[in-house]
Structure formats: structure tokens, C-alpha cells
Design goal:
Strand content: 5-15%
Number of helices: 6
CATH topology of the largest domain: Rossmann fold
CATH superfamily of the largest domain: P-loop containing nucleotide triphosphate hydrolases
Strand order of the largest sheet: 1-2
CATH architecture of the largest domain: 3-Layer(aba) Sandwich
Number of domains: 2
Largest sheet: 2 strands, parallel
Shape: globular
């Protein structure tokens, strides 16, 4: 259960009524999305809970897992993907990781350095079911390589 301080630190301002009711709802969200079983910071858990508590149709994520180790990042990528499959919200996920982009996206849009313009806009033709084994598949790695070539072109190196 989240206490009054945790709710305040998370910065939730919802119209549920009492702080206890908000804390209960956030605890339910954390439990429902398996956020209590993952090992990552309270701030990250709070940020994800805050983003998910209203069951959004649009989820904006700006490099949410950039500071995490690779295994934790992959686990959270899988969690976000599973949430998307269940809820079918639209997500705008900003990342500098080509592998993360391919795993999560239905479409990738790559931007150049400033002044930013679109360098590549590619559909990701992979099945919706994206288990960890997908990362070792030929199709996945071909898409990652294609995006890497786009990156080289954007940087003037190919």
C-alpha cells in the first residue's frame, strides 16, 4: 500500500477524493501492471503508475528506461508491450536504442540532429506477440540493421 507521502511524491492529482482512496487506486495499478515485482526505482515505478492510473488512450514515454541495465530494460520493454497488447493505447516512445524501438514499435520514425527532420519512417513488420526470443530472430535483426543503415545515412557516414 502506498502511504500519503508516496502519493505526494508521485505528484498525483486525480479526482478520486481522499488521499487514502488515491493511494489505494495507485497500489491497485502497481499490482495490476506487475510494477511491484520489478526491481527499479520508486521514482520510475511512480512515474509509470502515474502514467497508467488514468488508463490513457495516448501514452508518451521519453526514454523512460535509458538509465537501466539491459536485462531490466528488456523486461520493462516486454511489460510495456504487453500493456499495449491488452489496452491498445497509442504510445509515443522516444528511445535512442534501435533494438528497443524495433521490439516495441509498429512503426519507427527516425529524426536527424538539429534542425530535426525525418530521416526514416518505417513500418515494423513483426508479429504482435513479441516474446524475448524475437530479439534473436533473423527478421528482428534485419530490421535493426536497416535502421542502423538509416542512422549512418542521417549522420553522413554511408
Amino acid at each position: 500500500m502506498l502511504d500519503r507521502d508516496a502519493v505526494t511524491k508521485i505528484g498525483v492529482t486525480l479526482s478520486f477524493g481522499t488521499v487514502e482512496r488515491i493511494a489505494d487506486h495507485l497500489a491497485d495499478v502497481l499490482q495490476a501492471y506487475a510494477l511491484v515485482t520489478h526491481r527499479f526505482s520508486v521514482l520510475l515505478r511512480g512515474s509509470l503508475a502515474r502514467a497508467l492510473v488514468t488508463e490513457p488512450r495516448l501514452l508518451l514515454l521519453d526514454e523512460p528506461f535509458a538509465a537501466l541495465d539491459e536485462i531490466t530494460r528488456q523486461r520493462l520493454d516486454a511489460l510495456i508491450h504487453e500493456l499495449w497488447r491488452e489496452r491498445r493505447f497509442t504510445a509515443l516512445f522516444v528511445t535512442h536504442s534501435l533494438r528497443e524501438a524495433v521490439f516495441l514499435a509498429q512503426r519507427t520514425v527516425m529524426f536527424s540532429r538539429r534542425p530535426a527532420h525525418v530521416v526514416a519512417n518505417r513500418p515494423i513488420d513483426l508479429p504482435d506477440d513479441r516474446a524475448a526470443e524475437l530479439r534473436t530472430s533473423v527478421a528482428y535483426n534485419e530490421i535493426v540493421e536497416r535502421l542502423y543503415q538509416d542512422l549512418l545515412i542521417a549522420e553522413g557516414g554511408a
